[in-house]
Amino acid sequence: MDSGIFQEKSGFPKAFAILLIFQAVVGSFILMKHKESPLIVILITIPLTLLFLFSVLKLNLNPQYFEYYFFPFAFRPKKIRWDEIKEIQFVHTDPVSDFGGWGVRLSRKYGKAFITGSREIIFLKLKDGKKRSFSIKDKEKLAAFLEKNNIPYQ
User: Fold this and answer.
1) pLDDT tens digits for range 51-85
2) pTM recorded for the entire structure
3) Among candidates 8, 128, 62, which has minimal Cα distance to 112?
4) Minimal CA–CA distance to 115: which of 67, 61, 45, 68?
5) Which class for 21: exposed (0-12), middle (13-18), buried (19 or more C-beta within 10 A)?
6) SS in 3 state form for 47-69?
7) In degrees rounded to 5, what are phi and psi of residue 128?
8) Residue 80, SS3?
């Protein structure tokens, strides 16, 4: 990692896709046993499975700004300049109890959150009162980036 940048990609746990496929197979067998078409199960399962498999949260941080992109939920990356951020914290969370699950979530405590498989988040309090939270995989590398670029955090 270059000291001037921090980049990370994370996605949903692959176990979600496996669980969806398993449920679709079981549900299809149950419907076929009752002589009903499993088509609705398949039509719901395939897009959801693809969503879990191909969703990716990308964080690109440099000395000027914090950039994030959560495909397919956003069409372009969003940037937050460091001077727009009032406070930065690392927080250990439980995605289910703190956010109600994974994906793009809203939380009173953590604001708009982009949650993937990790329990670690970087929590940003912005000067305009908004809050943003992002799952992170490598807290140590991110902390090293912040320290090298004199960006204060807690």
Assistant:
1) 888 999 999 999 999 999 999 988 899 999 999 99
2) 0.83
3) 128
4) 68
5) middle
6) HHHHHHHHCEEEEEECCCEEEEE
7) -85, 5
8) strand
